[in-house]
Amino acid sequence: QVQLVESGGGLVQAGGSLRLSCAATGTFSSIDVMGWVRQVPGKSRDLVAFKGDTTYYADPVKGRFTISRDNAKNTVYLQMNNMKPEDTGVYYCYARGGGMPIPGMNYWGEGTLVTVSS
User: Fold this and answer.
1) What per-residue confidence (pLDDT) applies to 4?
2) CA angle 16, 93, 108 (to 5 degrees)
3) Distance CA 88, CA 16 (A)
């Protein structure tokens, strides 16, 4: 059993900042990759960033968002700066790794809503 719990969402004005957190708990020995996706109503989930052996950022967030991990706490963070209205959506974190109950499967959190007002 693996659970991911996000926190840190909310309402922010354009140009502002938010920091999302996602903690993984349960029975696993290691996590290889943790990341974030964003979903807006009626659309599919878009990958925002992930961090494993490599770090990836989607083009729209490069230079504004920073992903980091605290492996001792099995936690991933997403620092979002200079936010724009198009960053609005539900942010889901995920985790994947060979040490998890089903290797190679993405485990997902429940999501946290981020709203950026113009």
Assistant:
1) 98
2) 155
3) 12
